[in-house]
Amino acid sequence: MSAFLFVTPSWDGHSWAKALRHVAPHMDVRVWPDCGREEDVHYVAAWLPPANALKRFPNLKAIFSLGAGVDAILSDPTLPSGIPIVRVNDADLTGRMSEYIVLHVLMHHRQMRRLADNQSKRVWENFDQRPASAMTVGIMGLGVLGTDAARKLLMMGFKVVGWSRSAKALHGVRCFDGASQLDAFLNETDILISLLPATPETDGIINRELISKLSCRGPLGAPVIINAGRGRQHVEADILHSLDTGRLHAASLDVFASEPLSTASPLWAHPKVVITPHNAADSDPAVICSYVAGQIARFERGEELVNLVDLKRGY
Fold first, then answer.
1. Is position 308 within any domain?
2. Is 109 among the residues known to form the active site?
3. Selected catalytic residue, list 87, 96, 230, 234
4. Which of 87, 104, 234, 278 is catalytic?
5. Are the C-beta atoms of residues 5 and 47 closer than 8 Å to each other?
6. Does the annotation count 230 as an active-site position?
7. Residues 107 and 81 in one domain
């Protein structure tokens, strides 16, 4: 018997199981920790799995990540070797992320926080509004998510530059790559978007030094940061310091090193910070389970899995 197991301690695994049973009624679907016979489990779908959870299944054939990130899976030192790990690459998730990016770029560009504050005080203030073409948006991470966001921002009229670990070519986007070109990319960037994967190299990358290299030539007089990648990538104290000194105009943060964000964090009350609860691109169980079921069907027919994680690169 071939069983499928959801390992999602921070999510309702039963809602995911219901969605998978709907698209694949023939599957034996189980929800951790009620694994049944461990040797029956051939496929696992995981999000923030507990340490040691995935090593228990001797006949495991594939692991599916239920979100865009895979760092929580890869951080398990007991992760069984040789088992393919599949990333979610679905148009629904990609579209949701681009919606979030466009929303927050426009919010800062059109100074909606200032307008909302004026409304609360009943202040009628006209101030200079520049066109999108006056603003350069820099995207760190030109994978599927970054590429789609770049295309949609270009459609809005923004100038877009991009930076990635390896060289990329994207029509309409001036692309930079590698450590040697990071400073040049930052110097062009008025609004910085982080969609980088979580790796040891990207931990803490958004720090005071990086912020100091961002452009101050844009319409807002100081740069903006939007982090919808991973929370480990920004240094909270450095963002707060840069906001308070005026080196940073504003920040939108969807991800944090520790979630949920502590109620004691000064980010909550900072007037220049927008906080969202890691919902930039929620995973829809119906959509993701259809994707997973399709992958398994192809794999069972002898075809190769797609969107595999490169263990050496960490994503």
1. no
2. no
3. 230
4. 278
5. no
6. yes
7. no
